[in-house]
């Protein structure tokens, strides 16, 4: 019997317009009504994840930063798994050598050193999700969406490195050439046994502590709740979801998921633009998966 559901956000719970559909919302609320714990497991920072949930009226726990942090439904921090300062410097050196733009997700929120590049990368994401729109429209949509998210712009990341109270949780880098450029860099970074490299979209790499993975975080939360992993359902669409899909009793890959994700999951859901999460939740409940 399902007692805990962990859902990815981008490409999964969220529609192509980056909001939660009515169908998904109603299914989540029904699961909660039946006493099933629901939480999101996302690569986003908690300040970036919260607006879509609040807009839909969903109050739930959050695993953020690919498992770097977790929060209960009241926003209380449960745990943090950050990167060591020397590892951060090593990763950044590699990214700078390749001339890549990157952002830092920290214990004090998200930091970026270029508002223009952040907008351009987010617009590329929007354009991927809604192929029929022009890039100019994608820029407008991205600008409106980013206005809702909390990010601190700095002239130099030295501001963060010189503040011992700020812990770096994740480094995310982008390239409009996708994995053709990012793939070899990811392989280079993987030589360091202290980090875990994954991606949530074809145009990014996400670098975390080796123990900051969605699967580990879901198990940590399940253990805290006294729930067996066999009674946990997870649903996702991209490579950073694979660890949790491998570890739970009931796993769904979205219809729009990457091939490796579909090969990992036990069940296939519909796409994120067709209430895939909501339909998967209702199926799991009705069929007692």
UniProtKB/TrEMBL annotation:
Cellular component aspect of the GO annotation: cytosol
InterPro entries: Cof, HAD-like_sf, HAD-SF_hydro_IIB, HAD_sf
Source organism superkingdom: Bacteria
Signal peptide: none
A Pfam match: Hydrolase_3
Keywords of this entry: Hydrolase
GO MF terms, alphabetically ordered: magnesium ion binding; phosphatase activity
PANTHER family xrefs: 5-AMINO-6-(5-PHOSPHO-D-RIBITYLAMINO)URACIL PHOSPHATASE YCSE (PTHR10000:SF55), PHOSPHOSERINE PHOSPHATASE (PTHR10000)
Name the UniProt record assigns to this protein: HAD family hydrolase
Species annotation: Vagococcus penaei
């Amino acid at each position: 019997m399902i007692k805990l559901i962990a859902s990815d956000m981008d490409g999964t719970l969220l529609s192509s317009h980056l909001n939660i559909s009515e169908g998904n919302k109603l299914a989540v609320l029904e699961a909660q009504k039946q006493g099933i714990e629901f939480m999101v497991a996302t690569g986003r920072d908690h300040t970036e994840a919260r607006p879509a949930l609040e807009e839909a009226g969903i109050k739930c726990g959050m695993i953020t930063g690919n498992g770097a942090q977790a929060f209960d439904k009241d926003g209380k921090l449960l745990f943090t798994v950050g990167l060591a300062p020397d590892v951060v410097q090593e990763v950044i050196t590699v990214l700078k050598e390749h001339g890549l733009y990157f952002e830092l997700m920290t214990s004090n929120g998200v930091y970026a050193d270029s508002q223009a590049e952040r907008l351009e990368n987010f617009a590329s994401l929007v354009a991927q999700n809604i192929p029929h729109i022009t890039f100019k429209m994608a820029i407008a949509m991205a600008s409106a969406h980013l206005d809702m998210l909390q990010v601190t712009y700095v002239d130099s990341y030295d501001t963060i490195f010189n503040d011992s109270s700020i812990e770096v949780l994740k480094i995310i880098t982008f390239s409009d050439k996708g994995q053709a450029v990012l793939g070899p860099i990811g392989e280079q970074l993987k030589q360091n046994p202290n980090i875990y490299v994954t991606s949530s979209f074809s145009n990014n790499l996400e670098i975390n502590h080796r123990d900051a993975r969605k699967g580990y975080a879901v198990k940590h939360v399940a253990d805290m709740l006294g729930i067996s992993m066999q009674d946990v359902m997870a649903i996702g669409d991209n490579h950073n979801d694979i660890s949790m899909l491998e570890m739970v009793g009931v796993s769904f890959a979205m219809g729009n998921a990457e091939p490796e994700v579909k090969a990992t999951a036990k069940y296939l859901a519909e796409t994120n633009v067709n209430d895939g999460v909501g339909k998967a939740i209702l199926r799991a409940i009705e069929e007692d998966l």
